[in-house]
Amino acid sequence: MSDIDLSDRKKQILYQAVEDYIENASPITSGAMVQKSETTLSSATLRNELNALEQMGYLKQLHTSGGRVPTTKGYRFFVNTIKDNCRADLDGLMKIKSVFEQRTINLSELIKVVAEKISEVTDYPTIVSLGGIDKLEILSIKIIPLMTNQALMLIQTPRGLLNNTLELEQSVDEQSCIDAGRVLTNKFAKMTIGEMVDNIVTKHQEIIQELNEYAGFFEYVLQSLVGLTKKYAQNGVYSKGATKLLKNPEYQNVEQAKEILQLLEDKEELKNLIDDDSDDEIEFSIGDELCDERLSDCTIAKAHCKINGENIASVGIIGPKRMDYAKISGALKFIVDEFNKPDLLETSKNNKKGDQYD
Amino acid sequence: MSDIDLSDRKKQILYQAVEDYIENASPITSGAMVQKSETTLSSATLRNELNALEQMGYLKQLHTSGGRVPTTKGYRFFVNTIKDNCRADLDGLMKIKSVFEQRTINLSELIKVVAEKISEVTDYPTIVSLGGIDKLEILSIKIIPLMTNQALMLIQTPRGLLNNTLELEQSVDEQSCIDAGRVLTNKFAKMTIGEMVDNIVTKHQEIIQELNEYAGFFEYVLQSLVGLTKKYAQNGVYSKGATKLLKNPEYQNVEQAKEILQLLEDKEELKNLIDDDSDDEIEFSIGDELCDERLSDCTIAKAHCKINGENIASVGIIGPKRMDYAKISGALKFIVDEFNKPDLLETSKNNKKGDQYD
DNA sequence: GTTAGCACTTTAGGAAAGAGAGTGCTAACA
DNA sequence: TGTTAGCACTCTCTTTCCTAAAGTGCTAAC
Fold this sequence. Notes:
By secondary structure, chain A is of the alpha+beta class. Chain A contains 14 helices and ten strands. The two termini of chain A are 44 Å apart. The model of chain A is unreliable at 345-357 (pLDDT under 50).
């Protein structure tokens, strides 16, 4: 898959052809390429070359006398070529930068704003999926009594507060809650949420004994943890700008647009689509590569944002295969880099203005 | 606007005509009405009557030899007529009922699920706007110290917990927080959030003196309250099923669909559209009545859900003017009634499973 | 290896024609 | 006076046909 069979001239012609098609959405023709003086060759020679590229699977004709459009293989060649050569919309990206610099914002809010801005800059629907809470380290656990047999469980993590309500059999006093929180903190601090859940399942009896007089609370905590995990899983996907798809000529037919718009409404499906454990920071999945009938004419650009090497959010941009790869690549690269800056973590950890998960 | 100029026969014909049009989406013709034996009159007589109804502004012809379609006035007549005669999709509504009976759900979650189910039952996009937090009564205020100069402010209300972070200059100990919470509770309990904010603005100095050694906290609370109000205003709109619009023949053209889908993505605009202080529980705004160019071919059905006479949420259903008014009316009435049941308030107040606002 | 020239193919768009649907009007009828 | 049959008229929708335009592939010459 290294395009090694392509002569330099073919590579250049193919690159120009795909670039043209992305810009104009009208099939590539030998005549047009000569007219735009993208080559010194004659249209006849170009025809030969285009024909050869078609034989090799990089282009295809819609009908005999029409021009050619890129195949997935053609787009793939193009994407691999521009990879390190992305174009950035500086004005738009500066707007995003100001969001990152605004220290008063919390992480989940930041993610939302990023999705909005990216969608604005790229003019494509943008999806953001927050990483699960499983890998978050527990810093402390607090229990706050509320009225009528309820209490609030707060779990502090390096990335903000998690909260969920406990359902008690009887009301409890303030001091017991404080004490129970301390005991739970001692037991579970430094573990991740995931490890805590594991521990609870595998060492249930053991822990109950250890917790002594606060074992009663433990059952409620257990109950609440299930709710917590569910709650944060559901709220972890955010999408913006779905209707921007309709600006593209490939979705002028409602039937074609409907399927993808429906997909964009289904958070669960979106999550599956965006989440993956690729090591690449930025990756493009083009058409058939997505292995989803509905998306056979789409490309999804994904960026995996990491803080301290840990995946904290994935950003996806969905559009027609004929999307502006260079611009999108630039925008995603910018985001990934912003997350990689060491001081963002500082901001996130010692955030002056409440870094909360909700 | 009382349709008093209509003979009984005209009323019946008009009703049938609109009903037909809603069902079939094809213009009303004298021939079709006779064929469906909706009348014992001849097609010629029907033609006279339809012509008269057109002169009176209830119907209009798209072109000379086509059939007629209802005008806004025609739909308005129809809606007024079916008002107390709505049809319910029992199967679908029973699904919603089970959500109401599920006592473990909190109010904002309930609202979301209701929007989803209504959208499913009616097959139209559905919008839910939660009432503001201004009118919520304060039951108690708690302050919880967090790490590194932060604290969490919790305000208990009859409809769940509000929370926001306080930014402190220096860290504080647990006991001071508990005490500060008590003092704030004594001062502000029984007021509404709105009143609390008013008080803070108008009696700033007075309160600071009163709060004595906890006056320091007060400044932070003030700061946090602004954030709180903003936060809950932004999260108060929820919409579901936007792409369901595309199922309707009137949106087979992307240009027509685009505007409304864009509108459905803009939470702020949706909020303005759905919120109003009408006394009617259920109301329909048809086409021009909405006074919005983009919505001139739409109808919005709104229901105002009240608990104890206070507006707690508005539900809006948006669709083409040719929407199934009887079915939608039935669904909305069902929802409003469920909210009106006295025991929902109980559920909401003494909810066993944490009735939280987030 | 490149290119000019030409025949061939296919689409897009418009004009023309005919069928079908529906109305309005007139005149007859109860 | 209200109702209805009948008919001419209008308008749309579909089909068919035609032409222009665009683009290719192939061949032969350079």
